[in-house]
Amino acid sequence: MMDTNELIAALSIDSVRPPAPGRALALALIPGVAIAICLFLATLGLRPHFPSLLGEPRFLFKLLLLDLLAALSGALVLRLFRPGAVPRAAVLALAIPPILLALAICAELVAVPAAQWGARLVGSNSMVCLRSIPFLGFAPLIATLLALRYGAPERPALAGAAAGLFAGAIGAAIYATHCPDDSPLFVAVWYPIAIAFMTAVGAMLGARLLRW
Amino acid sequence: MYDGARVRVDDREKEWALLMRAGNAGDAAAYRRLLAQLTPALRAFAGRGLARAGASGADAEDIVQETLLALHLKRQTWDESGPLSPWLYAIARHKLIDALRRRGRRIEVSIDDFAEILPGADQAQGSVVADVSRHLGELPAGQRNVVHCIAVDGASIDEAAARLSMSNGAVRVALHRGLASLAAKFRSYE
Q1: Considering only residues 99 to 128 of chain B, which have any Cβ-Cβ distance to chain A shorter than 8 Å?
Q2: Counting Cβ atoms within 10 Å, is residue A52 exposed (0-12), middle (13-18) or buried (19+)?
Q3: Which residues of B touch A20 (CB under 8 A)?
Q4: Please, are residues A16 and B170 in contact by the beta-carbon 8 Å criterion?
């Protein structure tokens, strides 16, 4: 038989300490992102003349926007590791990238004649975009979910969704260095579809894998 | 100005955080004292939660044990710079809700409804008692022996290693895995 005092005795002697949230996430992401980058280089690769393109405002904005989204959603994931931590600020911060994108769309609509809006929005590569972001985000998603298993998320589906958003943003940030469509109109239509898909997959997996 | 109860709660909060930090730094005695101090608070929390849900208080100790296991296995998620209570009660609430949900999934029949038909029916049949001791029996033998040796017989890591002819490292790992398996058994108990 074992009562509560005996349980406490056993708990206080157990000195094995699982990794803290930041460390768990970093250790999982290193292989996860490495796999994504290898897949990227093996299948898609950087756009030609990549360094000189960094002077292009549309291209640079696209990259920075997706990096920002990855950073902000990563901060939310870290928050959701911890029970009792209030995620409100981290959730509200996620509004920043869409607001920046909306401003960029306004600028684009001013800069480009209306006759070209449709072509810019449809782009030349939307199906590759929709396929590549989940393809590149898959390993980071698994890595993030594995790391979150060391956490104690109060709402497993929400934590999974945040993991999916984070992984989708990582996949998108990597894919963006290949993607030839730089218009904010394109970015605002196709990228969110792929990232939302990853978020939904993350929520579904999280509800199953992140119970504790 | 200050009412006594508030000051006592603040003191308690400070002491808990202090003990937890000491425990994180490797002070097993401080950690044990902390767990012993948390237990009555967790017991009161579980009792209140069960009463509010209209459930029998018979399961309170199960929830206390499950919460202790969870807060131990997830202790790395506490932010040392913050207070302990929000973290502690978030875990306690999570485990309470989990227990109530598991309970709701069973066909809940109050023994009172059958008092006349089943005089002297075994009380335990009507409750969801699934405490650590029951789950202990379901663990793999290696983990079970180590957990039993340390928890029930009060052995240290060294003593358990000598008695079970295992290395210290193997005992440590088996103890941790055993505790993690116990937590999983609670979770899967339907």
Answers
A1: none
A2: exposed
A3: 76-77
A4: no
Residue B160: phi and psi, rounded to 5, are -65, -40
Assess B51–A contact: CB distance below 8 Å, yes or no: no
* Interface of chain A toward chain B, CB-CB under 8 angstroms: 1-21, 81-85, 150-152, 154, 211-212
Q: Count other Cβ atoms within 10 Å, centred on residue B108.
A: 12
Between chains, do B77 and A152 touch, taking CB under 8 Å as contact? Answer: yes
Q: What mean pLDDT, rounded, does chain B reach?
A: 84
- Contact: B87, A16; criterion CB under 8 Å: no
Q: What stretches in chain A show pLDDT beneath 50?
A: none
Q: HEC states along chain B?
A: CCCHHHHHHHHHHHHHHHHHHHHHCCCHHHHHHHHHHHHHHHHHHHHHHHHHCCCCHHHHHHHHHHHHHHHHHCHHHCCCCCCCHHHHHHHHHHHHHHHHHHHHHCCCCCHHHHCCCCCCCCHHHHCCCCCHHHHHCCCCHHHHHHHHHHHHCCCCHHHHHHHHCCCHHHHHHHHHHHHHHHHHHHHHCC
pLDDT score for B133? 76
Question: What is the distance of C-alpha B34 from the center of its chain?
Answer: 13
Distances (CA, A) of A13 to B45, B88, B152: 25, 20, 13
d(CA B41, CA B93): 13
A7 and B151: CB-CB below 8 Å?
yes
Nearest to B151 among A2, A17, A82 (CB): A2
pTM: predicted TM-score of the whole model, two decimal places: 0.89
pLDDT of B3 strictly over 70: no
A83 CB neighbours in chain B (<8 A) are 74, 77, 87, 90-91, 94
From chain B, the residues in CB contact with A7 under 8 A are 65, 68-69, 132, 151
Token pair for residue A195?
Answer: 């990232």
Residue B75, chain A, CB below 8 Å: the answer is: yes
Contact present, A50 and A121 (Cβ < 8 Å) = no
**Interatomic CA distance for residues B142 and B164, integer angstroms:** 9
